[in-house]
User: Fold Methionine gamma-lyase from Hevea brasiliensis.
Amino acid sequence: MAHTKSHAFLLSGKKRPNQDEFDGDDLFLSKKSLLLSPAVTYGDDPVAALAAARHEFGEHGGVNMSIEASATFTVMEPDTMRRMFSGELGPDRDFFIYSRHFNPTVLNLGRQMAALEGTEAAYCTASGMSAISSVLLQLCSSGGHVVASRALYGGTHALLSHFLPRACNITTTFVEIGDVEMVKNAIVEGKTKVFYFESMSNPTLTVANIPELSRIAHEKGVMVVVDNTFAPVVLSPARLGADVVVHSISKFISGGADIIAGAVCGPASLVNSMMDLHQGTLMLLGPTMNAKVAFELSGRIPHLGLRMKEHCHRAMEFATRMKKLGLKVNYPGLEDHPQHELLKSMANKDYGYGALLCLDMETEERANRLMQHLQNFTQFGLMAVSLGYYETLMSVSGSSTSSEMSAEEKKLAGISPGLIRMSVGYIGTLEQKWSQFEKALLRMQDSGFTYKNSVSAVTK
Assistant:
């Protein structure tokens, strides 16, 4: 709990009775081994690192961990509580006070997230926005300054451009992250505390040069915070130079469109400071994850790699076929994407180029008409925000998830009024879903929409 317990986040858990003096658990129980995490041992493969993370067994030997649903925890001796509040005893030795502080089930999910992202520690929160806001408020004080990408999720953009200046006197300069000079000029040494961007931007799929941007920020003493919600497994920002990685776990990591959750992955010192009794944003603002939610998510992360491979495979196939039809498609896996080679150089091998593609229909009316055909007549996908579901989810970003931005801000971010963001699902067969897409396009042709090539021109 207190600032002195900087390793508590990865090291909680009991040894089973009759264990040898040294076994696999000791790798995670020893403070000396903190930096020798699974992520380091297994190099650039996040799935291998996740598989090497400590497995938490159930209380009675179950292959799944038990759910610690208690809000509060008992102690055996009166003095123990004083020692816990002073920081002398903590979760690293299986002492818990209250589940807003630490919960064993949520801590286990944090270990999994740290392994996945290759960081020392992670803390899981009630939503992605709570993770983002907690990090920014921990790193920036009143009068602080943030440099951020122009192309961000609308909620994050609103937080930076409206809420933080009004409520906290924290200002943001928005930049084009592909313009290195613009980035450099925006950073004010001694005042700028955070450089914030998305690994793949929402919704325009601009790929950030994470190593270069991290180098520029670090040269000026600025912390780099990267939202990796669009590219779990595909990209590992912390391995590429970022300091902190945030996630909306609600998306691909959950995979079921039934959970709201977030995560902060970063140095143990930062996560610990966020849990400080007197100054920590996670401790004092209370964005607490429910233990039952953490249990659900812990059972889904092990197959994240398999799901992402299929998501990405289908996104690549659909984008390629859409391009052959002459449609205006934006997908980082295509060779004509401006950051295709950059993504190839950074991406983890064998996990693809991302599961989102953008189809620009130029006008909102035309985009809405296509989505209506795709959902209501051919069952290709669903008109819904969010991403990472087994069904394909479609939305017109300019009037939905980016609606918080002004017309000028959307123009600067490259968000067309007719831009359809598709989170490509994996239900059904690939050919079945493509046939449904073709039928929707034929209905568009019947209503006067034309494009470069006919549907029959696409080779299967």
User: Anything to note?
Assistant: The chain has two domains: 24-302, 303-457. The first strand starts at residue 121 and ends at 125. The chain is about 35% helix and 10% strand.
